[in-house]
């Protein structure tokens, strides 16, 4: 697991912390498709969907991460997202964004799967 400089991970949900362990599902899936460890590019930092704490980005609640995909082709990204969905299960929301895969712990199923 690698982290972009400046990524803020304090007060993350315990499920996110579990996901960040060495040898985690994230690394295994990224190694399988990208040939490298997962690179986390955002936690509680940055601007995210909604642009404010009030609008409800899971990043601001410590329930979401972004993982870099800019060095991957479309097929690798699709396979990575599909494997993450299969491995993590129904309590996780996986979304392909232009430069990253958004991974959110969402046991309430607030987002369409």
- The helix fraction, in percent, is 25-40%
Structural class of the secondary structure composition?
alpha+beta
Global outline: globular
Low-confidence stretches: 50-55
Question: Ends: how far apart?
Answer: 26 Å
Oligomer: single chain
Characterize the biggest β-sheet.
5 strands, mixed
Number of separate strands: 5
What's this, in brief?
This protein is an alpha+beta fold and 113 residues long.
Descriptive notes:
This protein has 113 residues and is of the alpha+beta class. It has a single domain, classed as 2-Layer Sandwich (Muramoyl-pentapeptide Carboxypeptidase, domain 2). Helices cover 27% and strands 19% of the residues. It has helices at residues 14-19, 25-34, 74-88; strands at residues 2-3, 39-42, 64-68, 92-96, 100-105. The protein has a five-stranded mixed sheet with strand order 1-2-3-5-4, with helices on one face. Strand 4 (92-96) and strand 5 (100-105) form a beta hairpin. Helix 2 (25-34) runs antiparallel to helix 3 (74-88). The protein is globular. Mean pLDDT is 88; it is low at 50-55.
